[in-house]
Write a structure and sequence with these properties.
about 675 residues; mainly beta; Cathepsin B, Chain A; Jelly Rolls; Immunoglobulin-like; 5 domains; 13-stranded mixed beta sheet; six-stranded antiparallel beta sheet; 6 helices; rod-shaped
Length: about 675
């Protein structure tokens, strides 16, 4: 029931050579160990739950499964969870709608077949600390509960001549405590010895558990020998809670349904779901039927691991076949098959050799062939109020068409619903959840440049997945738009650094294992600078270069070098934009732009049309002016932004020479009509 505690455990059954069974035996002291849990004091009419749980606890001890499951102390299972949730009582019956109001009275009814139905559905057993309340119903299910599954339950009788007594003794020694029954009445003798003679007509009204025997114990019977039994009336009763019952008691070891029941191979519940239609388990047998099947529909992604069923007689062959289809009255497409032999009557869980993978809504068909004894089935039935009491009550079962079929005498598959509208065969399928497979490493760009808007990543489809969950760390690095196997990461424009991206698939069972993380580097853009805006004459050239070394360059003139030589005459007079786009080692791209102003022929004008010249032009250190005749002329030097850097009378210029070493590189002129304009 959605809980797993152990996949493998080691059996620790004490070794014994059975060629000669001991004349006396006590599970409380077997090779120095005790395989009997503490005596309990029942409340109400719950002896049958105590007898069953005592036997199951004993099996957990003798096999070592309790300790291997990591549990502490001695096994202590909940009798009252079984008492409340067995499905046969007025508190709850899933085959009724509403599920209350009909059936046995809680705390006052049940037997080992009721217990088997509860266990076979996977509803228990649970620990006493999980659900122990008597006065009110404990929780039916909880994820914190530890569930234990009884794989096999066998029914025995010793026989009137005790012909099968050694079989029961060996089961006690190998599988632990055996559940049994008795009739409480005036059948006691000294030493807390019980014997109800065969001729007495009283039916059993109490359940206890056999923990040993002594062939030499004298009882009121004609022959010696008695079973050592554990009661549920507290340790203050009898021999510290224990007593003896004669081998020849009317019911102990003899009653066909309650005489000797062995709960075997108890293990932590490994299965996530039990598919069944027989809510109340084994209530009757279709005697002349050898082959039957149940149809089920898968609820999720699952693996069919095992099949369980009842057998009504000892020593029979069985054959299980799982089919994929049932068309035109014929089972088709074998998915798995398993055959074998079963020694004893009872409930059996068989592991499949070939596991069947199921997808949601898949139909699958479990066919069972039993060589003898007919097919056990569930139906509305009359159940003893308290064990074998003459008082009985009707417990309702329900069925639907198309669930259970049997092979009739003419070799045709017939719906069991047509035979009994409340009947279903006791054939179950046990599945384990199939979580999504591990996601592959996401694929996509692992180097992203700052400023990129989004990047796309993807993974292949994952088996058994219905949805996908993507995650990025740090979470503030990007916003994820999830489209199942494809994710778009919209980047935080201010983030740089390393990001990890992973994905895990999920279905109704839960999440699969997360994918490996894809590491993505969010890189800063390269810093590129090709200088400030400038001006040049049309007869000049200027070299422009990138400020750093990059992996690739692209200039506006399609040059791919790290620098370019600009020929002003080629561009022509006017304003021109020069840009460079660079790519760094992370494949990140950035660019820079400058403006070049190219100046055409220079005209020098003045009001007096004086013929003069300025040289050298261009110049870096000084300029000389020649040809000025009017010494009162004013010489003005102004930069391109209009700032006047020099203004003086020509008469004040010594040697007709002006020092310009301290002037910034650029173009200087006078646009206004002054006496003299100077451009250099």
């Amino acid at each position: 029931m959605n809980k797993k505690y152990l996949l493998i455990f080691l059996f620790q059954i004490p070794l014994f050579i059975f060629s000669q069974l001991p004349s006396s035996f006590d599970l409380r002291n077997y090779n120095g160990n005790s395989y009997v849990t503490s005596v309990k004091a029942q409340q109400g009419g719950t002896c049958w739950t105590h007898g069953a749980m005592a036997a199951i606890e004993g099996n957990l001890l003798i096999t070592g499964a309790w300790q291997q499951a990591g549990e502490q102390g001695e096994p202590n299972l909940s009798e009252y969870h079984l008492d409340w949730w067995n499905g046969f009582n007025q508190h709850n019956n899933d085959d009724l709608n509403p599920s209350t109001g009909n059936g046995l009275t809680v705390h006052n009814g049940g037997d080992y077949r009721v217990t088997a139905a509860y266990l076979s559905r996977g509803e228990g057993a649970v620990r006493d600390i999980d659900a122990s309340t008597f006065a009110s119903a404990p929780l039916r299910f909880d994820t914190s509960f530890h569930y234990y599954y009884v794989r096999n339950i066998e029914w025995f009788i010793t026989g009137h001549q005790l012909e099968q007594i050694n079989t029961i003794k060996m089961k006690i020694m190998t599988q632990g405590i055996v559940g049994t029954c008795m009739c409480v009445g005036s059948y006691w003798s000294a030493g807390n010895i019980h014997f109800q003679p065969q001729y007495d007509f009283n039916e059993p009204n109490h359940a206890v558990a056999i923990i040993g025997w002594d062939d030499h114990i004298q009882t009121p019977a004609n022959e010696s020998g008695a079973w050592l039994c554990k009661n549920s009336w507290g340790s203050g009763w009898g021999n510290n809670g224990y007593f003896w019952i004669s081998y020849y008691d009317k019911h102990c070891g003899q009653h066909p349904q309650m005489g000797a029941i062995s709960f075997q191979d108890v293990e932590p519940m490994l299965y996530d779901r039990v598919y069944y239609h027989d809510y109340h388990g084994w209530r009757d047998e279709l005697i002349k039927c050898t082959q039957a099947f149940n149809k089920f529909q898968a609820a999720d992604f699952e693996e069919l691991k095992a099949v369980s069923f009842y057998t009504a007689v000892d020593s029979i062959d069985y054959s299980i076949v799982i089919y994929n289809n049932f068309n035109n009255g014929s089972l088709q497409n074998v998915l798995s098959a398993k055959s074998g032999f079963i020694n004893h009557t009872g409930f059996h869980t068989i592991n499949l050799d070939s596991i069947v993978t199921l997808f949601p809504s898949d139909d699958f068909y479990i066919s069972l062939l039993l060589a003898d004894g007919g097919q056990p089935y569930d139906r509305t039935s009359s159940v003893p109020v308290l064990l074998g009491s003459s008082a009985r009550t009707i417990v309702n079962s329900t069925a639907s068409q198309g669930q259970s079929y049997y092979l009739d005498l003419n070799g045709n598959w017939t719906d069991l619903y047509n035979f009994d509208t409340t009947a279903n065969f006791c054939i179950k399928g046990l599945t384990m959840k199939l979580l999504p497979e591990t996601s592959a490493l996401p694929s996509g760009n692992t180097s992203v440049c700052k400023g990129e808007i989004f990047t796309v990543y993807q993974i292949p489809l994952i088996n058994y997945a219905t949805d996908y969950e993507w995650s990025v760390f740090p979470a503030n690095a990007a916003t994820i738009i999830n489209n199942d196997t494809i994710a778009q990461l919209f980047w935080n424009q201010s983030f740089t650094g390393t990001v990890s991206l992973s994905v895990k698939a999920k279905n109704n069972w839960g999440y699969g294992v997360s994918s490996p993380s894809l590491l993505i580097n969010i890189n800063e853009l390269p810093t590129v600078n090709i200088g400030n805006d400038t001006s040049v004459f049309i007869n000049q050239s200027v070299s422009i270069a990138a400020n750093h070394t990059f992996s690739a360059y692209l200039w506006n003139n399609n040059s791919i070098d790290s620098s370019v030589l600009i020929n002003a005459a080629f561009l022509g007079a006017g304003t021109h934009q020069i840009w460079l786009r660079v790519t760094d080692t992370n494949a990140c791209v950035n660019s820079d732009t400058l403006i070049i102003n190219i100046i055409d022929n220079v005209s020098i004008e003045n009001e007096k049309n004086q013929d003069f010249r300025i040289f050298p032009n261009p110049s870096t250190d000084y300029i000389k002016i020649e040809g000025i005749t009017d010494i009162n002329s004013i010489v003005t030097i102004q930069n391109i932004e209009g700032k006047i850097l020099l203004e003086k009378m020509f008469a004040d210029i010594k040697n007709d020479r002006i020092d310009i070493k301290d002037f910034a590189k650029g173009v200087y002129f006078q646009w206004q009509e002054r006496i003299l304009s100077v451009i250099f």
